Fold these 3 entries.
Entry 1:
Amino acid sequence: VEQVARELRRRGFRLTPQRLAIVRALAMTDSHPSAETLYEELLPSFPTMSLATVYKTLNTLREMGQVMQLEFKEGSTRYDGRHPDSHAHLICSACGRIQDVEVDPFSSEARGAIQALGFQLARYRFDLYGLCQGCQQKGASATMKAAR
Ligand SMILES: [Zn+2]
Ligand SMILES: [Zn+2]
């Protein structure tokens, strides 16, 4: 957080307590919040904060490469401030939970194929869709209730 704060100041970004709270909240969570979720989380501590401030701070962090932005067709954009570098995500289709998963999606064959095309890979998105553990259990108990 300190390092990000210093970098923001260096770029002439006015680091108000609200903005610092956004940076901190994002660095602390692995829940990949949306701007709206972050806003709602911080509003009790910063009642004068606007959603626009959250968006502006997120945008600046993204430009700095300090946050990974995950855009979805359904219109919601989620942010990962803990692991700004490319990594794989497990995305629950039922509740929208996003979890990080430590895997290297590239086989040496895949890396070779990319190299053969002379392409310089900068970043990637690797989204895996399914049901999280919680939703599977909920689904199982719903099925059991229906069977009774
Ligand atoms: Zn779920
Ligand atoms: Zn992530």
Entry 2:
Amino acid sequence: MSGHLDLRATELDLEHAGTDLRSRFVLPDGVTYLDGNSLGALPVGVEGAVRDAVVRQWGHDLVDSWNTHAWWDAPARVGEVVARIVGAAPGQVVVGDTTSLRWYQVLHAAAAMRPGRRLVLADPASFPTDLYVLSGVAAQVGWTVELVPPDDAPRYLAKRDVDVAAVAYSHVDYRTGRVWDLPGVTVAAHDAGALALWDLCHSAGALPVRLDDAGVDLAVGCGYKYLNGGPGAPAFVYVASRHLGSFENPVRGWHGHAEPFAMAPEYAPAADVTRARTGTPHILSLVALEAALRVFEGVDVASVRARSLSLTRFLRDALEDLVPGVDVTSPADDAQRGSQVAVRHEAAYGIVRALHARGVVADFRTPDVVRLGVAAPYLTHADMLHAVRQLVEVLEGREHLDPAYAVRAKVT
Ligand SMILES: Cc1ncc(COP(=O)(O)O)c(C=O)c1O
């Protein structure tokens, strides 16, 4: 009945064979992993790198490793690798801490760079941590938060141009996978004298970001989704070089000091991007992230994007062909679709659990979204079709209505 889709999947997988990086990952047999937008899969080199860091570096070389294994420099060194992936020239990215902490830092720094301006724009559909952290910073610096979706921002900014200190948006909506116009909103912010701050959690490693070209001021992102750095991987922060001198770190930890080992009683920030550092970095996690990023060696993010678009396009088409009445909320337009396909359904949670029982790992986002994350390096068009067929069987067999799925796990 749907044999044409098998043929198409085979053709597309042949066409895109050059960007199939599955051999660079460890994935369990029998699992179709559509949750790389939550926790990326395990890259092959990570286990050995972490073992070496534990056994030889920590276990044998002990405290010398801060120098001999360059632990101290890891945040900036790994930052340079991330910089290439997000379109930043060297010297503007450091890695460490969490996205939430990094967001706190860039919001505070932005407020200090735009004294006297009292508004900040944020998307009401932002990932909650972004809004929570923003509300705390706003209370501290005296900002009023205006909830304006990113596509309305240019119009809003044109009207309120003297008041807006910053726009604080996500590049890709975490629920729908909608890609916002990062360059356009950044220009509109600048025209209004405001700064442009972006959360790249759902775009770093999935699509070209081109931070420098777009003139972005400050940005953050996590290491555990499309960068595959592992659970709790360190986050990153980007400070455009023109702002380095005025970037005031609200968390004045000693690792951001110009001379940490001078042990001076006064804080004096480092001249370079390491002024964004805080305290002692999570070295084991940094080692894991650094090893994970080798997946991108010799890989152009544009080629990852081309593969991802083909996969998500095919996934959308297969859903629409095979699942009667399916409600796909991710944009049909390639330019507006990130690396996931979201489906709305009133029994979304049951669907995610029933798919999981069949070896298809996706995730649920309240209130009614099944997120099918498509981490292009390790997925194929055949995987897309397999997932859709499993969904058809779940729905036909009413497996998603199993009472066992009425109770939600702690992490959905
Ligand atoms: C857009 C976005 N920002 C932030 C976070 C999480 O922040 P943290 O790394 O501090 O947990 C997520 C997590 O999924 C996210 O999707």
Entry 3:
Amino acid sequence: MSISTLSFSGKKVDYIIDDTFETIHTYHPKEKILLITDTNMAHIYQAKIKSYNTIVVEGKEQNKNQETVDGIIEKMLALSVDKSWMLIGLGGGVITDMVGYISAIYKRGLKLGLVPTSILAMCDAAIGGKNGVNVGNYKNMVGTLKQPEFILFDFEFLKSLPKEEFINGFAEIIKHACIKDKAMFEELSQNNIAYYLQNENALKALITRNINIKNEVVLNDEFETADRYLLNFGHTFGHAIENTYNIMHGYAISIGMVIAAKLSEQVMGFSKNETQQIIALLEKYNLPTQADIDLRKTLEILKQDKKADGADINFVFLQEIGIAQSKKIAFKNLSEMINKL
Ligand SMILES: NC(=O)c1ccc[n+]([C@@H]2O[C@H](COP(=O)([O-])OP(=O)(O)OC[C@H]3O[C@@H](n4cnc5c(N)ncnc54)[C@H](O)[C@@H]3O)[C@@H](O)[C@H]2O)c1
């Protein structure tokens, strides 16, 4: 177990890595902890959570919206939750995003702790303070930036994570490799999903490396004026695909990364050979690299994306594997480039 404390905008966040969930009562008086989790987690981990005040929600992406948030807030009012309480989000990225958001808005702010339980939430969603909910087809359209008091990583939870969710999380790991870490790209290319499923220490080391990559980016640029923007690699089309076609986040991002790599060939002179290496790596980790999707339809959705700015959108391209760059591009040009794919 290790604890490191990082400082974001003056707020200190404890990263408790490889500890057990059983210690959470040491971070706040137990009777003033409110756990919020989803139905899957509540079912599997009944015994672990039964002595806590708990609210359980249907943790699907389609329910990551204001209606679910309002339902949780009504239950919090019924429990007389006040500012002396701490909310703890236990679950995947849907839960950590929603609980982070509620902790920022309920009575103008409560203390927050996060216990991410999916690969995706451990390597990405729970880190960096971004939270929020979807509005209709528009991903994460409403939200805030709020850092938790702590993030506790208990790798034991991964033992119950379904395999497709395990694969889903590797999309964000491959994204980190594409934009920031060529050596990790090579390590991933030498291994495969079965290796990380069977080798607990290698998996812990990989997740810790990804926590560090994301933290380094966020510490450099918490409010997304430059470097943090690169984390959106694959997400521009990925988000539009995710909500239009209702597929899992990582799977949609995987397809989005292939589109972004191909567009990088046109804009940055990114090599075709490296695009093929990315496709091969995604396929090795059982992620989809293409789908029968109408890119024109997704382009319409993009016009409402947070990254869009009138007639332009900020798009993340690759210069080479491990080096990314964001550029403003006109929708008109993007549309012509899509025709050439
Ligand atoms: N805030 C950010 O910076 C950020 C970054 C990336 C992604 N996200 C968000 O994260 C969400 C996706 O996260 P996700 O893939 O974790 O989705 P999720 O929360 O829906 O979890 C996926 C599924 O796995 C189950 N699950 C989670 N942990 C489990 C465990 N240990 N054992 C058994 N089942 C478990 C959940 O019940 C759910 O059915 C999206 O909404 C995305 O927008 C946010």
